[in-house]
Amino acid sequence: MLRTGAVFTILISAFTFPSKGATQLNGAGATFPSPIYQRWGQDYNKTNPDVQVNYQSIGSGAGVKQFVAGTVDFGASDAAMSDEEIAKAPAGVVMLPMTAGSIVLAYNLPGVTDLKLSRDAYTGIFLGTVAKWNDPVIAKENPGVTLPDMPISVAYRSDGSGTTFVFTQHLSAVSADFKGKVGVGKQVTWPVGVGGKGNEGVTALVKQSPGAIGYVEYGYATHTGLAFATLQNKSGAFVKPTPASGAATLATVQLPANLRIWPTDPVGADNYPIATFTWIVVPKTFPDKAKWAVLKAWLTYDLTEGQKVADSLGYIPLPAPVVEKDKAALETIQ
Amino acid sequence: MSERRLPPDSEAAALLTKHSKRVDLFRYLCALAAVASVGLLFWIVGHITYEAWPAIRTYGLSLIYSTEWNANFNRYGVFPYVMGTAVSSLIAMVIAMPLGVLIAIFLSEDFLPPAIRQIFRFLIELLAAIPSVVYGLWGIAVVIPLVQSWGGYAAGGVGKWLPLFAGPAYGNSLLTASLVLALMVLPTITAISRNSLQAVPHVLREGAYSLGATRWETIYGVLLPTAAPGIVASAILAMGRAMGETMAVAMLIGNSSRLSWSLLSPAGTLAGLLANEFAEAEGMVINTLMYVAVILMLMTLLVNIIGDRILAFSVRKVKGLI
């Protein structure tokens, strides 16, 4: 009994308290980059066994709240931080784009494998003004494709989400009508459709209902085998969502000093229209110097070695100039 | 009397005080537990109301009867969610109540050998132990496709003239959520109804038989009316559970704030609204969501008051019997 007790104590201490010299980095926030942050944590732990990264994917907004409250070492957000949120953070904020992704329109139309949607078509669908799949606005761009006389059922995220934020931001940039009726937000009131909870909810909606269309992250859509549409960008070209077309979009972005920007409506002919960075936020004056050295080393690893796994996980590797600016920003933190 | 040896007075007194001291301590513990649970309730209600106060002052009653929820434009109205909460739990109750009471009758009579009855009872009560997220996932995988295909037929047939089944038929709909809710409240109804049916004194049953009543006459004429208070209590508890259920409903109902007559349309509930919006809420939205929580509590209170009236009525009818 005594021995079991002793073994138990050792086990508990091994799992809950890192041994001497070990550092635990705690982060919380966006769900979209969670798989790649977890992966970076695991990979880094293999070469640096005394560093453990503990990332909780609780949503962008909740992550920012925990970061402002100072309960985590770093926060993560698809919507970076608003000026109001930055004002609340006592130790200042440095926002670092860590990885990026595209948002695709996944659809379920039996027999249709290659669907092209013009800007008018997809904004109309999400506004409810284009309600049937054989609407002339859709048919015009899809010659040779038999579009069914079927109602379009729109699927959206019912819970607050950075994906919704980026997608509504794009739709608002494209259509003044959308901006006036729905607006931009992590959660908005959609004029049409059905709300699914989480990525898995939207995916289930699209998979189960013929005639459905919904917005999900590229990685998620490829992972679950959903068909997704080719979209028209600002230059009028139709672009397939691929890591390359997403990277092309991000390459056009001129990062401002605070590194917070979205390519809301990119102009290049090869640019996929909806792509976004996702950020890790760190206090400008880090309270624990020793811990900051460890966190900085991990973030540097993510920005260099870490970018190589982005592709395989469905993310877009950061363009080289962005990585350079991130590294420069790391140096500004004390 | 005189042979009986009583302990001397002093000894008896000591025994008595010892005994009463123990009783007193126990009584204080009970009182403490009761006060603590009531105090906790007031604390929760008080805090929620306090947090909700700015929203209550700004929007007042208009929050309840306005039909548009659009946080982006600071327009807050929860009428569709109030309706969704009420209708989804009512439909669930309409389905689960007869089913649950019939199961309770079946399990409290001697239709089956006691061992098999025990297994049935155990399995049905096990339904209560399934986490609601699992009900939600099961609903996505099984109930949604069913409602979608059958709903499609219904919308094409009766739906043409009956607005309750008007198309287009969605899988994530009021009907789907209600069906899964019905299953979730079934064990509550069955367990409590069965207990109260079993608690009906044997004399009543025997009396009915001796007057020449058949088994079914006994069940409908004697057992059910006598067990009515317990059955009503089970309905109150089940209704409360259905109205407050969050996860499974949020996963299945489609979370839409548009009002529709059709059961095949997406809808929303107050609890689902809270679950969806809380994580990312900021500033005034938090106050408004707290106000929504207050409304949900008031709705539950209303149901409990109505249930209590019915309960008092049914108790009065069987007064003196049990």
Explain the layout of strands and helices:
The complex is a heterodimer of chains A (334) and B (322).
Chain A: H1 2-16, E1 23-29, H2 34-47, E2 51-57, H3 60-69, E3 74-77, H4 83-88, E4 93-108, E5 116-117, H5 119-127, H6 136-139, E6 153-157, H7 162-174, H8 176-181, E7 194-196, H9 198-208, E8 212-217, H10 218-223, E9 227-228, E10 230-232, E11 238-239, H11 243-251, E12 275-283, H12 289-303, H13 320-331
Chain B: H1 9-59, H2 62-65, H3 79-108, H4 114-126, H5 132-156, H6 174-198, H7 202-210, H8 215-244, H9 247-252, H10 270-278, H11 284-317
Helix pairs in contact in B: 1-11, 3-6, 3-8, 4-6, 5-6, 6-8, 7-8, 8-11, 10-11
Written overview of the protein:
The complex is a heterodimer of chains A (334) and B (322). Helix content of chain A is 39%, strand content 20%. Chain A contains 13 helices and twelve strands. In chain A, strands 1, 2, 3, 4, 6, 7, 8, 9 and 12 form a nine-stranded mixed β-sheet that branches. The longest helix of chain A has 15 residues. The radius of gyration of chain A is 22 Å and the shape is elongated. Chain B has 322 residues and is an all-alpha fold. Chain B folds into two domains: 54 residues; 240 residues, MetI-like fold (Orthogonal Bundle), CATH 1.10.3720.10. Chain B is built from eleven helices and no strands. In chain B, helix 1 crosses helix 11, helix 8 packs antiparallel against helix 11 and helix 10 runs antiparallel to helix 11. Chain B starts with 8 loop residues before the first helix and ends in a 5-residue tail after the last helix. The interface between A and B is medium-sized, with 29 and 30 residues.
